[in-house]
Amino acid sequence: MYEARLQSFAAPAAPSLGTERLRLLRAELERRGLDGFLIPRADAHQNEYVPPCDERLAWLTGFTGSAGIALVLREAAALVVDGRYTLQAAQQIDTASFTVVPLAEITPERWLEQNLAAGAHLGYDPWLITVDGLEKLRRAATNAGATLVAVDSNPVDAVWADRPAAPLGAVTLRDPALAGETTDGKLARIRAALTTQKLDALVLSDPHAVAWTFNIRGADVSFTPLPLAWAIVPREGRASLFIDGRKLSNTVRDALAGVAEIHEPALLEKGLELIAAGGAVIRLDQATAPALLAARIEAAGGTVSSGVSPVALMQAAKNAAELAGMRAAHTRDGAVLARFLCWFDQEAPKGHLTEIDAVAALETFRRETGALKDVSFPTIAGAGPNAALPHYRVTEATNRRIGMDELFLIDSGAQYEDGTTDVTRTIAVGTPSAEMRDRFTRVLKGHIAIARAVFPVGTSGAQLDPFARQFLWSAGLDFDHGTGHGVGAYLSVHEGPARISKVGTVPLVAGMVLSNEPGYYKTGAFGVRLENLEIVREASPPEGAERTLFAFETLTLAPFDRRVLDLALLTPDERAWLDAYHARVRAEIGPLVDAPTRAWLDAATAPL
User: Fold this and answer.
1) Phi/psi at 268 (nearest 5 deg)?
2) Backbone angles phi, psi at 152, to 5 degrees
3) Phi, psi at residue 578, to the nearest 5°?
4) Which of 248, 291, 549, 565 has the fewest C-beta atoms under 10 angstroms from its C-beta?
């Protein structure tokens, strides 16, 4: 049997643990003179994946989703989650102690307005709340007649007896051939942006931005090669990097010392205060910077400029070396996917495979390349009705045997040193129904529409999003997630600032890598999602063109399951696109796989 070493299928802790932990927390709050406390699912950098020592929400409530906040008062406690996690939360927590509150029905701020008593003191950890988040909380507390209190230490930590230690993952230097730009060059671009925006300094609170700027990677969190660190880049003078020195070898320290002053994280506040004391205007990234940093800057006499970090767009627009690495990673991953899909087609009809078996096999095949650093997120592998849950995570408790005449959806990704991958395929086991084929084909038509799109400079993801939905809309159908997200180069599989979605307002620029993943989900029955990654590139202008045009280059190389197609729904142009894509997959991946897989691949990519 194959083994998954990089992801766990353990069921969450028993909900009953939350009752005693809530009692301990309330006792600690009473000792501190607090009437309530906020526990967001967050670390000090607002990372998507956080180290175990920052999983306070999971420890307290048992809820293991990637987003949520607990609101604990003396007589009430709520867990606010978005629509992805309403059912999961109810299964994981003690509903006698915590009330699950769907975000679509009431925001955390509104819940506080309704439940905080006048005169109450509501505590919060200023390292875990952003400036924008704090402003919303302040309005809610004011409306309730309550007072917000910033705590010096988190009360959850005081009662979490076996809290894990902070991570000390070793920092590595990015290969210059993969980075494509020196740290000095990046710092010069950042300083030019500060000059243009009339800023005196920039705080890098997002570890992805730190990793990109200083050409380093780390191992402090799962699924993303992040070093948890901070940096200050002044408009004039040397940058400062704040990182635990135990993560740095002598070689790495010497390299970083050539481009920045190296300090321990405990000196970050002092460093900010020194810059702010001269009345400096300091940019804080509104998405990731803790409210505590804003308070320190203002107290020292500086001015906070809260907004988008200029690094975000620089990082998103990959250079030629980064794109070459991404192409190499996707070619390698394409050979893995062909091996997996061939294996799955052979084994699934026998009736013994489970969702966990499929996850373990795919991870194993990726590990056997010798190049895998990590998976880029926990694999989503849903059979039958589980595929109708867009963010389903299989556990030992939910693991389902893959049955005949149903669809299997697998959404997975890899972290290789040269690039990050993310791919979804929906596969037929047995004979798909006419409804499955109709929905699959409508999703594929939307996917093709994005892949073939040609659009002028300045176009945003929100303007492209309807391309993916039009064929579902015409049948009275839709999907509730975005069509695409940005992807990093050996960084986060979910990268901003651009995305293809109804709220994706950032214009796309050349070099961005975005996912193209429309879907359809029928609750309790089946789900479809088809995902490739795409590079934004300049398009060849047609005769008479008056504007510069962009188009997409598809990175992902893996067959779509033609057995689920309703060919009558495809236009000649769509058929031609699919045949051309499959011919490319066959040509680029065929030479990289063994003979049995090559025979399977030839059949799977044969012209329609």
Assistant:
1) -60, -50
2) -80, -25
3) -65, -45
4) 549
Last residue of a domain, one of 289, 309, 329: 309
Does residue 259 form part of some domain? yes
Question: Which residue matches tokens 């934004």?
Answer: 536
Q: Is residue 446 part of a domain?
A: yes
Quick one: 155 and 59 in the same domain?
A: yes
CB of 102 closer than 8 Å to CB of 83: yes
pLDDT band, residue 82 (cuts 50/70/90): confident
Instruction: Choose the final residue of a domain: 288, 309, 330.
Output: 309
Taking the CB of residue 74, how many other CB atoms lie within 10 A of it?
13
DSSP run (H or E) holding 81:
strand 77-81
DSSP readout, 178-212? HH-S-HHHHHHHHHHHHHHTT-SEEEE-SHHHHHH
Please give the residue range of the domain that contains residue 148.
Answer: 17-159
5 inside domain? no
pLDDT digits (tens, 9 = 90+) for 400-412: 999 999 999 999 9
Q: What's the mean pLDDT in 497-513?
A: 97
- For residue 417, pLDDT beyond 70: yes
Mean of per-residue pLDDT scores for the chain: 96
Residue 189: CATH number of its domain: 3.40.350.10
* Contact of 497 with 506, CB cutoff 8 Å: yes
As for how many domains the chain has, the answer is 3
Q: What is the pLDDT of residues 48-78, one digit of tens each?
A: 999 999 999 999 999 988 899 999 999 999 9
Mean per-residue pLDDT, 501-506: 96
Token pair, residue 522, equals: 């029928």
Residues 445 and 576 in one domain: yes
The pLDDT of residue 108 is above 70: yes
E strands along 205-343, which residues? 216-217, 230-234, 239-242, 260-263, 281-285, 303-307
pLDDT of residue 12: 63
Quick one: 363 and 498 in the same domain? yes
Q: Is 490 left (phi over 0), alpha (psi -120 to 50) or beta?
A: left
Helix (H, G, I), strand (E, B) or coil at 440: helix
Residue in the block written with tokens 């049995």: 596
User: Are 406 and 452 in the same domain?
Assistant: yes
Cα 341 from Cα 358, distance rounded (Å): 10
User: What are the C-alpha distances in Å from 235 to residues 119, 190, 268, 277?
Assistant: 44, 8, 17, 16
How many Cβ atoms are within 10 Å of 430's Cβ, its own excluded? 13
Q: Give the Cα separation of 336 and 425 in Å (integer).
A: 13
- Is 0.90 topped by the overall pTM? yes
Residue 267 sits in the same domain as residue 125: no
Same domain, 539 and 475: yes
Q: Is the pLDDT score of 148 beyond 80? A: yes
Does the pLDDT at position 11 exceed 90?
no
Tell me, yes or no, whether 304 and 379 share the same domain: no
Whether cis (ω within 30° of 0) applies to the bond prior to 102 is: no
What is the rounded CA–CA span in Å between residue 31 and residue 398?
Answer: 41
